[in-house]
Design brief:
This protein has 517 residues and is α/β, with parallel strands linked by helices. The protein is built from 15 helices and 22 strands. Strand 1, helix 1 and strand 2 form a beta-alpha-beta unit. Helix 6 runs antiparallel to helix 7 and helix 13 packs parallel to helix 14. 32% of the residues are buried.
Length: 517
């Protein structure tokens, strides 16, 4: 008769190959139902075992998951194992013998377990006498729908297979504790759904009795320290499942004590507080005062395709420009910033990349928009990494109807690391080089990397230096919408990423950059 191996898995990359290798040649079909593993389980199965039928399903509980796997099996006999269970040679022979019989004595067979904890074979504490149903006729049994501690439902008697299953329970203490936490969650939920109630006394006493039962009465002490560890963790599991059940019960009682009207009022207050916070923090009130809003967008490179966060694709950029035009945004230079208009927006591009020169002029003309390019003159003189940069002639030839040139320091260094004197000298160099090449520029500064001293005397000294040099405005990243009047040396720019969708772009125009997006 045909035999199907059924397994449910989640993050079993360390076990699955060992199981499949042990049974590959004695089963007719292998069904794996995976709960969307985040490790290499799926990759290992699909690449190394092409005959395996691999399915994925959201995990809602062990009983449901196993019954789903059963529904996918076509064999007359089902061998249902966990990924960490490996049959020894005698057990494999026994399985092969039973499934070859036309009229076996039983329709369900149990397998005895060798439970291993790390390198220790556990013989006592209740672990040395375990046997569970693992082989059965498909038409004779199914699993209960319990989320945890599911069991096989059948009206048939069970026989015993020869040999044993080597059960490699836990790969590490971390994995073990994580599994205890998961199982105790599910067990508490199961007991709560069945209406079980528990008193504080049982929460305190049950873990103690569980330890005594496993370590003393079931002779766990004969396994030495491994036996102590098992007794202790079983006690911990007992404590967790009961304390979590008690927590659920107390929360239910608390909800019942609060009148419905009070709950509604509390909900309204909480929602109101959240809404007020959002309106103030993200300046949403400016939506109703469009003439007070100033949006400054920050770009870097333009390419046929987006290869990283700093390179926006040509298609994406054109969609964004088209949206700005369709929604009647007013494109501005910094020289026009003191004239509030409806939906004011400034498009800025950092560093002077050659692709800005190649792509921007036609796009800006097509959509009647303007752009400001911040130039770090050292990048133009010496280059930057392997990127093609504009030349001074390229910059000089940009149409002033569509382009405004501004400052990005000379050496493009973090201003937090410079003294006021070094900052002043660097900016003077930046301006002098542009002037020497007959390039008209505006005294607007984009802080390199968006960094500048933000507190105390260092900030005051920086702003004094900027004022001394006649700098009109300075921009940081900030990722917020500005409003009139605003701090002229701390104007915020909104960072537009290379792979931003048009929907994300629209949201950024309203909120700036939210972590949610």
């Amino acid at each position: 008769m045909s035999l199907t191996l059924a397994v449910i898995t989640y993050n079993e990359e360390h076990n699955i190959a060992r199981l499949l290798d042990s049974l590959y040649n004695i089963v007719d079909e292998i069904i794996i139902v995976d709960s969307y593993s985040t490790d290499r389980t799926k990759e290992i199965v699909l690449q190394q075992y092409p005959e395996v039928k691999f399915f994925e399903k959201k995990f809602n509980g062990y009983g449901e998951q196993k019954n789903h796997a059963l529904s996918l099996c076509s064999g007359e006999w089902i061998l249902f194992l966990d990924a960490d269970e490996i049959p020894d040679t005698e057990l494999r022979n026994s399985i092969r013998h039973v499934t070859s019989l036309n009229n076996p004595e039983y329709h369900i067979y149990k397998a005895k377990f060798n439970n291993h904890l790390g390198t220790h074979l556990i013989r006592y504490g209740g672990w040395g006498t375990v046997s569970r149903e693992r082989l059965f006729r498909k038409d004779s049994a199914k699993y209960s729908d319990d989320k945890v501690h599911e069991y096989l439902i059948s009206d048939k008697k069970a026989g015993n297979l020869d040999g044993k299953l080597d059960h490699y329970t836990y790969r590490s203490i971390h994995c073990h504790v994580s599994k205890i936490n998961k199982y105790s969650d599910m067990m508490a939920e199961k007991m709560f759904e069945k209406g079980k109630r528990i008193k504080r006394f049982k929460v305190i006493v049950s873990p103690v009795f569980e330890f005594i039962k496993v370590f003393i009465f079931k002779l766990g002490f004969l396994d030495g320290f491994a036996g102590y560890y098992i007794a202790k963790t079983m006690s911990y599991y007992t404590f967790l499942k009961y304390i979590k059940l008690r927590e659920k019960i107390k929360l239910e009682e608390l909800e019942k004590k609060i009148p419905q009207e009070s709950r509604m009022m509390l909900s309204l207050i909480i929602i109101s507080v959240i809404l007020v916070f959002l309106v103030i923090h993200f300046r949403l009130y400016l939506i109703f005062f469009t003439e007070n809003r100033l949006i400054i967008l920050m770009y870097h490179q333009i390419g046929e395709k987006s290869t990283d966060d700093l390179m926006v694709s040509l298609d994406n950029l054109e969609r964004q420009f088209k949206y700005l035009k369709d929604k009647n945004y007013t494109s501005k230079f910094f020289s026009e910033i003191n004239i509030p208009t409806r939906n004011s927006i400034i498009l800025t591009f950092d560093d002077g990349y050659k692709n800005n020169f190649d792509y921007l002029p036609s796009l800006l003309e097509k959509y009647n928009l303007k752009a400001v390019i911040f130039i770090p003159t050292k990048f133009i003189q010496e280059g930057y990494k392997d990127y093609p940069m504009m030349t001074f002639e390229d910059i000089r030839n940009l149409d002033p109807n569509y382009f405004e040139i501004a400052l990005h320091t000379h050496a493009h260094e973090n201003l937090r690391t410079l003294t006021p004197e070094e900052t002043e000298k660097d900016l003077e160099t930046n301006m002098q080089i542009l002037s020497d090449h007959h390039i008209r520029y505006k005294k607007v500064l984009a802080y390199p990397y968006g960094k500048y001293p933000k507190k105390g005397e260092d900030k005051k000294k920086l702003f004094f230096t900027l004022k001394k040099l006649g700098i009109d405005f300075a921009v940081r990243i900030g990722n917020r919408v500005n409003y009139y009047p605003s701090k002229k040396y701390e104007l915020c720019r909104i960072d537009i990423k290379g792979d931003d969708s048009i929907e994300k772009f629209k949201l950024k125009l309203i909120f700036g950059k939210l972590k949610l997006f």
